[in-house]
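Predict structure. Chain length: 71.
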Amino acid sequence: MKVNDMDKYQVTERMKMLKRRLNDPKAAFHNIPVEIYEEVNNPVTDSEGFIHKYYLSDDVKSLIELIIEGN
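Prediction complete.
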């Protein structure tokens, strides 16, 4: 599923999954730019704690689609 087709609940869950994967010491992620790593680990949220798709950069959306969704 494309990030732009997700609601805030789905985006928030996928970001949690991506954060776990990027921070897993057994994961073999190399050359992730610091800006993307910081965006995943410290995302902008609304007042209820949800992450909206329009808060995310295109790079993070692509990571979600490639790593989590497998597209």
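Summary: Helices lie at 8-23, 34-41, 58-68.
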